[in-house]
């Protein structure tokens, strides 16, 4: 029998690229752990494009069939469907189908409650009243403003009722939206892009819960109410707390005072790294690259289900399941507590579809404790916008043994039955019961929960007690426990909802001693909701931030800052009083940073308020934190006028024994134009007795300041190998006509990295570029040293003489789309396995260093402008050619180049890494620079990748062979 199954699997895999595994064979082809069985709950034609599903109070599955994607409809018309699939005999296969509606528009999420169905229907959140499985009224738009134009695969999604009785959902990074009730003026709407949001069904209030990640598509709560979302490209799993500001794939957080983003809760990936496209399966065979297969399948995840049922073995309880889109499987992550939060733990992959068409989208626990997963069933993925097969789709059930079918209707149960279900270990039942009680409380008030079971307050009963608390709170009844709560998890949840001055007064002394880090994190979350006008908030904050040991917990200190930041923004003078009164270093530095970054404020006057606090600081750590806050506030500014007190302040700081304090003081002095710091750093740069790294760092600090006659100093350093590289880069900032004549004679003696710096410096200005091209024409600089990136930079100078010279000496940058097919054919014929065997790997590495390493890292060497190549599919020739010959075919937003024409004639091209009101931070091919906005004449966004077109154009056949062979090296 085992041989027959193996033969079946091999047969199915062999035809994988042509069509999906037939529905009759699909469940048998899947591999689950021993004891588990998989059934096809539904498949085409009974269900197609199942993008989302949920279960009603009778245990029936409601499914969204999304026929709109990928061509979202802007005309308000559609044919998306909502259907009900019912398994009447409990065998894991549906046997009844009901069409609820067939005119849905852009549907991407579904949930049930309060007498109807809630639907993500971009640009709207829609509620449709339902009676007898049919709409009983017109659709009601509860919210609008979700971005339709840019939604693509980032549409809002993952509706689910939270423990607090709010409706939660996710939104993607491209869907930049202004959300509000219909008719809400623009200035009253709430902005959000990627993150988590929630909406109250009866109060009709919308809130952003947390921001960050990439395109989260999956949200669930664990048995203690902790929220988790699944994600793609960057880390796949985030523990989300209210008010959290998390790492993003690109761009800046909407709050300019976040001052640092929170990380994910995992330190591992489900793919082998490299660029996100590299975990895609082979287009022809459907096979996944082994390194990605071993790691978990790929970067893209969809759906989240934290198992809290009673069917699976205990080892799976409170673990998270998510669909790995490229891996054609279900990943399974453990969830463990840290002192102040949660972390994910790698576990073996749970379910292998063995079908390259498998595209898992949604995964949820069913009423009987089985796990259900929907399969989009297609060869593409979320970036395939042109073609989608809308004729198929599957939903599978994964059960352990034979679970008992749920046969009931939670919505009709009497109160005493609902009360019993609230503490059920089957979270599906508990959630349904709590929501039904919340619905009844709208009419009957808190009387529906007054007879709930009593709290246990015993160790081991935390989950049941939390469910009781959530039921009370959702119905508008928040019990007052006083000081009798002994369970840390219950105390933590209560701390999160702290929202009154009285509660703060009651707990001010408690947070100073005897609380756990998790409770303190909870208080920080609750504190952000308080009014800054309440004096008790400041006293409470002082107590909460008194534990110096908390500085070792990065996430906890981030929550501390996010908790106090709204109040600090509203009351900066009050916030400054905390600086010398608290032990949390991040809070101290960030308060100073915020005070000096306020819009429409005079930084010089604000310093008059900060310096007295610096004078009162009685220890090095506090002084260092205050200075760090000042330095961070000014690091993106070209210059700042110093207050009158600066002379005395700097004189004292310059004599400090603490080196870190002295260096911070010097950095601040530079922003003030203090010549004492300029002289000191110039001396350090020239002092050959200092380590080379210290000298280079001193020079780099002086480059944006441009001291008098510094161009001459930099030219003098061109003969010093220890600092020559930074001197060459620095000279790009000057227009002195003698600079090319100083650099070019040295070119032959430069290192490979210095040569790359020299070429880019000489390509920064028209006069310099002409000198560079003259040197190429004379053979002083090899033609191959002018890379396609440099050629593009020279063209960006927009000078007819320079462009003409480039064409004569070097050639032209060809449009990839016009030549790619021809070049691919030619190079595939050239780069045969036998020809590649004869490659010179050493020369290939040299070519990589010259052409690629400024932006890409391979085998631990190179830059970080573009994605790392070590874990990519560089072993596949088609992959290498596709990315080199047409790098602009698919360009993620964060890798699109921007061109800056500066007032002094320099042209800078690179990636925007950060932007403030005063400056733009740009990562170029060889450095990261801060450009003051007052120095920018013109800013031109491009659709070009950081990798230029025409990389191979200037290389000989043997050089192409050597470079490709090195790139493919294992």
TrEMBL record:
Coiled coil: none annotated. It comes from the Bacteria. Keywords: Heme, Hydrolase, Iron, Metal-binding, Signal. Residues 839-970 form the Cytochrome c domain. GO terms for molecular function: electron transfer activity; heme binding; hydrolase activity; metal ion binding. InterPro entries: 6-blade_b-propeller_TolB-like, Cyt_c-like_dom, Cyt_c-like_dom_sf, DUF7133, Haem-bd_dom_put, Membrane-bound_put_N, Quinoprot_gluc/sorb_DH_b-prop. The keyword Heme applies. This is Putative beta-propeller-type glycoside hydrolase.
